[in-house]
Structures are given as C-alpha cells and as structure tokens.
Amino acid sequence: MQIQNSFHISLPENAYGGGLVLPYLQKFPIIGEDVFLAPNASVIGEVTLGPQVSVWFGTVIRADIAPISVGDGSNIQDNSVLHVGTNEPCRVGINVVVGHNAILHGCTVENECMIGMGAIILNRAVIGKGCVVGAGALVTEDTIIPPYSLVLGSPGKVKRVLREDERSKYCGYASKYVDVAENYRRVFVP
C-alpha cells in the first residue's frame, strides 16, 4: 500500500520535544505555546492543543472524523488515546490530568479534572468540573457526571462529592506536569 501526499508538520518554534504531527484531509493540528510533545507521541488531524499542554510518550490524539481540543496546562500521559466518534468531538478542559493508558472517546472532560490510569470515558459522556475518575473506571456513553464527583468502578458510579482539600490536591497535579514538561524542554532545547 502506498500513501500519497503524506507529510509531517514540523513543530512550531514555541513547542518542543518531537512527536508526529500530521494533517488529515486538509485539517491541520494547532499547537499552542510551550507545548511538549514526546518524540513518539502522535497528533493527527483537527486537534487544538492550548498553551503548556504536555502529550507524553506513546500517546495518540487522532481527530480524523471530529475535532479534539485540549485546554491550557492539561497533560495527556503515556500511552493514552484521545479519539472521536462521528459528530462526537473530544474536549479536554483546562488543567486536566489524563493518567497513563486512559482512553477518552468522543467525550467532554471539563476543567480541573483528574482521569485515573487506565480509565475509559466513552461517547457523549460529560465529566463535570473538578471530578476525579478513578484508575480503571469505565464511564459509559451518555453519562453525565456532576462537578466535584469521585467516580469509581465499571460501570463508573459517583461514590461521593470530593472534599475541598481533595479538590485542591488533585487540581494541583496539572501544574506539576507543566513543571516536569519544562524539565524536558532543557533536554530537547539546547
């Protein structure tokens, strides 16, 4: 099989790391300032990454049939997948932590959430502001999770409302990853 007219988009000067950045059907990724893309991360199609987003090793963000947006300061950790359904975009808010090996498919994750390792969030699900979705949880299609909820299990269920101290703790994780990404800048930018 031969791929015609394929090409790799260079990272803009304001981003660093590497990664595979590709258009799909004339829809080009938009990469914000100070974005870190790990060398083996893939960003394809109609993707928008806000400032200080980090996309870690082995992650795939593929917007081939609907758009994907990742808000400022959010991080998509190693081996995660963000994809879409037909007319089902994937939206990740500001200062969101998406843990290792998570799958977000055609869903919305509002600001300041933490999505645990191996969690799966399916089409049209909405995770409200400040939620924590536990490791390995499965949030099924069309599920609406209220703000500041702790979600556990498969299928994912709201277990309780997060306490104020928990909200502050989990919200702070996103800024830690901005700092870690800055350390990688020193590796990739002389």
Question: Care to describe what's here?
Answer:
With 190 residues, the chain is mostly beta strands. It has one domain (16-188): UDP N-Acetylglucosamine Acyltransferase, domain 1 (3 Solenoid), CATH 2.160.10. Helices cover 13% and strands 35% of the residues. It has 1 helix and 21 strands. It has one helix spanning 164-188, and strands at residues 16-17, 20-22, 30-31, 36-37, 42-49, 54-55, 60-70, 75-76, 81-83, 90-92, 97-98, 103-105, 108-109, 114-115, 120-121, 126-127, 132-133, 138-139, 144-145, 149-152, 157-161. The strands form 2 sheets. Strands 2, 3, 5, 7, 9, 10, 12, 13, 15, 16, 18 and 19 form a 12-stranded parallel β-sheet that branches. Strands 1-4-6-8-11-14-17-20-21 form a 9-stranded mixed β-sheet.
Which properties best describe this structure?
190 residues; disordered N terminus; 21 strands; mainly beta; single chain; nine-stranded mixed sheet
The residue-averaged pLDDT reads: 92
- What is the CATH C level class, in words? Mainly Beta
Q: Helix proportion of residues, in percent?
A: 10-25%
The largest pleated sheet is described as:
12 strands, parallel
Oligomer: single chain
N- and C-termini, Cα separation: 39 Å
Spans of at least 5 consecutive residues with low confidence: 1-5
Structural class: mainly beta
The CATH topology assignment is UDP N-Acetylglucosamine Acyltransferase, domain 1
